[in-house]
Amino acid sequence: MGAKVSTVMSSRGATSRRGPPTDHAGPAPGRERRLDIHVFVAESGGLATGRAWERCVWREARVLIAECPAPHLPSSVENALRAVAADVARDRGWQGMGTVAFALDDRSGVFRVIDAQAQAQAHSGSATADFEPVAGHALEVRIDGCVDRRLPCTRLLVCGATRGEALRRAYRALSEMPGPAGIDRAFLMNRIASRAFCSGLTGTRLDQAVG
Questions:
Q1: CB 182: neighbour CB atoms within 10 A?
Q2: Which of 67, 117, 137, 167 is the most buried (most CB within 10 A)?
């Protein structure tokens, strides 16, 4: 039986009402955060979950920056998200890769599953003990064509030993890209350099702080 992806769950162990899954129009106003947990299920049945990726910078309902691990996310909440993601993968009989997306109320700790997608077929071998980023911190930046949807997005993956190092590398990479700096690049550089983003604000809280 498939997982009830619309069930509202709490990181404190409570469960609540059911409702329709939300769309991907962006986080709701207030303190809602959007987080993804990647899951790998081996043919042998071994299962591993990764650290939480946060869709932290939005523009016109599109994710422009995602980062892992999610800034200032309590380990207890991340562990709860990973446990639920593992349950979803098992309930749906996934093999290979999949992603479970969550909406988290940052104030109450209540979260809900908003999407669950298997991404690949089964892989040989066993799931790794820790399915983690290759570096201490990673940013995925999407640029060029993200406003004009007729054009493909360019994805830039930047890693660093710390979040600060990853942010500096991302800003430098954007500034050194060839060609004229379009609206997307200027917007992204403004966000990455902002004191609010550097302090760990994300999503609608970041938009409210930066304007």
A1: 16
A2: 67
Report residue 135's pLDDT band, with 50, 70 and 90 as the boundaries: low
**pTM, entire model:** 0.78
For residues 83 and 38, what is the distance between their CA atoms, to the nearest angstrom? 12
Are 10 and 109 spatial neighbours (Cβ–Cβ below 8 Å)? yes
43 vs 99: CA distance, rounded Å: 17
Yes or no: say if 37 and 50 are a contact pair by the CB < 8 Å rule.
Answer: yes
